[in-house]
């Protein structure tokens, strides 16, 4: 099975996305399932996971309705207010009844406090998440958040976490430390996974697999293929490429790997992690 473990939809006429402003150019418009469907078919994709694009219940409800309408949607990563643990419990009692909701994400990189995710009330909210067997997608945009993952793994040891976009390594500047050390520290916790996704928008304008290779090879070294999964990050990917180029270059990154490693990264890990 081939799984795109990280894609988005948004409708600017139905919902508000405070981060999405005209300066984002080509992605400042509505993107919905009918536009993605032929691209998935062309890539041979079996399932996708829709990931939240707004800290709002309305976004979660919108994604769940989309999942019900399209058989190729395998799961949804929604949103609950993690800093209000009592409300998290009440909402998850309802949301957990929906088989499409697999996990939760919060746009922590939009918070003014870079340490928001390790606030005591957020830790309590994450404990409720683990109680419902929901996973946590971590928007660990380097350099502010990746360093907190070992703390989260220690305080909420039964919480399954996945780092989005390998925490956006400094690819364009050919940077390495402290990103590499922090990624290895995160990978030391067996409940922490990561997504090979969103790397093209951290790379130079004329990027290719060659520019990303060092970073993905290192991720495979510290996590192993069984804790890594592919994601297109569509439509954000359009900022520096398109769906086809991301899929093509990801496959190029994995050339020379074993069939087991390739199958894990391109689908198997996502099936297991998100219980697809």
TrEMBL record:
Keywords: Hydrolase. GO terms for molecular function: hydrolase activity. It comes from the Bacteria. Residues 3-276 form the Amidohydrolase-related domain. InterPro entries: Amidohydro-rel, Metal_Hydrolase, Metallo-dep_Lactonases. PANTHER family: AMIDOHYDROLASE, AMIDOHYDROLASE-RELATED DOMAIN-CONTAINING PROTEIN. Belongs to the metallo-dependent hydrolases superfamily. This is Amidohydrolase family protein. It comes from Cohnella nanjingensis. The lineage of its organism: Bacteria, Bacillati, Bacillota, Bacilli, Bacillales.
């Amino acid at each position: 099975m081939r799984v795109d473990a990280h894609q988005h939809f948004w409708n600017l006429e139905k919902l508000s996305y405070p981060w999405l402003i005209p300066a984002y150019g080509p992605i400042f418009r509505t993107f919905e399932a009918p536009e993605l469907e032929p691209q998935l078919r062309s890539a041979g994709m079996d399932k996708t996971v829709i990931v939240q694009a707004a800290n709002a219940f309305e976004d979660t409800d919108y994604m769940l309705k989309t999942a019900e309408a399209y058989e190729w949607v395998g799961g949804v990563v929604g949103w609950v207010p993690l800093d209000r643990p009592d409300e998290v419990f009440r909402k998850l009692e309802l949301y957990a009844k929906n088989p499409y909701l697999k996990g939760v994400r919060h746009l922590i990189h939009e918070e003014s406090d870079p340490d928001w995710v390790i606030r005591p009330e957020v830790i309590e909210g994450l404990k409720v998440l683990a109680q419902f067997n929901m996973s946590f997608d971590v928007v660990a945009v380097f350099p502010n958040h990746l360093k907190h993952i070992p703390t989260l793994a220690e305080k909420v040891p039964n919480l399954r976490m996945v780092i989005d976009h390998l925490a956006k390594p400094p690819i364009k500047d050919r940077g390495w430390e402290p990103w590499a050390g922090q990624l290895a520290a995160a990978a030391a916790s067996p409940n922490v996974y990561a997504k090979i996704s969103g790397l093209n928008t951290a790379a130079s304008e004329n990027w290719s697999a060659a520019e990303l290779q060092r970073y993905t090879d290192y991720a495979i070294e510290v996590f192993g293929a069984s804790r890594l999964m592919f994601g297109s990050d569509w439509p954000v990917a359009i900022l520096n490429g398109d769906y086809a180029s991301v899929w093509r270059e990801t496959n190029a990154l994995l050339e020379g790997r074993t069939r087991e490693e390739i199958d894990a990264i391109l689908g198997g890990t996502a099936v297991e992690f998100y219980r697809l």
